Amino acid sequence: MRNSQDTIFERMEATLQIRNEGKEIWNPHDHDLFVEKIKMVERKHPQKRTGVKIGIIYARPGQTQPKDMFQNGMEGGAEVSDAFWTFMKGMGNKIDLTTWKGYRGDMGAEGVTYHEKWQHDVNVIYHVSPLLNSEEHRRLVGNDVAIIFFYDNPDGVIPPPQFDPSEIAGLGTVPQVFAVVQPVTGSTYRVAFFNNVNVKHYGPQLPAYPIMLPQLKELVLAKMYNGLVMTTYCPPLNRLYFIPRNETLISIVDEFPPESRKNRQARIKSGTIRVKRSRGALNAPLTSKRHSRAHDDTETIKGDFWMSQNNSKKLDESKQGTRSYLTIQGNNLVVLDYKTRSPLQTFPILQVGKCGLKTPKTLLFEVKDGASRSLILFKCSSATSLGRFHTNLNTTITSLYSQSQ
Length: 405
Known about the structure:
Blueprint: H1 4-19, H2 31-44, E1 51-59, H3 66-70, H4 82-91, E2 93-96, E3 112-118, E4 122-128, H5 134-139, E5 146-151, E6 177-183, E7 188-195, E8 211-212, H6 213-231, H7 239-255, H8 261-270, H9 288-299, E9 301-307, E10 322-329, E11 332-336, E12 343-348, E13 356-359, E14 362-369, E15 372-380, H10 387-404
């Protein structure tokens, strides 16, 4: 039987050859180590995020400039309403950074902030602008990819004032995805989302009506998380993901260079080869002559065979079997000389139900030997060389079945 990992790699190679015609495609023979290296890429450059930083900016009606919004809650600025702190309590838990041992999201060891353990394994740290100083506004919120604006309506104006996003470029080039939350009543909120033009669409969809705080939290965090993931694949932030990841992949390619023809043939001879066809590993496309050789290697198996005589249905496996090679040509079984691989005997395989697979490494045939019928038992010395042979055998069985109908 062929190693399942070999089969997967061969399928990948065949697909890549079709999609990348004219390019060199090679298949590393040390699959186990190669797979571990690929797993390392995912650990080093994960697509899944377990730590998320979200900036929270408190804005009052009429404020459009981020610098004015950052003054809210600071000395000389407007006070922050109770509605904002109610919103923050619904979005996470207040933590003291001096004793906090978990994910910090670039925050220091002093002060307080809010944290949420979302979806069991995602740590969300909020950079809350009224809790930060001017330097932290620049260093933390200015470098947050996801920003939530809490657009207050302290006077309860109906309809609520509209948020104007025309001036948010003052936050810099890093912020990419945005949410605007606005209280409608004491317990319901309306929400809207927008993003930079380079960021592709991401879900979930918005509700068409105001929602309660628990539902708002799940919606906003899901939308912000998906937006953060999407920015990984969209300019300008995709370079922060693809360039380091590409460098790691290049280093892996350098570790597994295309195999020379000499080394490959040595492994074929020693029986340690695991992948039977790998165009790139030979450093050149297969010529008809080389293709024939590779084809023979995958369709010819070596081992020991026993044969009954004169219509006998018994095989004496106590005696030493004859070391030889075996192959299938059409509906015939061909025994080859072990040293020269020249044909010694050819036996027509008989009807369906008289041949089949006993174990992965043992084959049983009923063949026509002159005017009589004989059994041939063949024990293959390596299960890994049976892949294409089994395919040909199944084709032969199908052909025999068709002839018997």
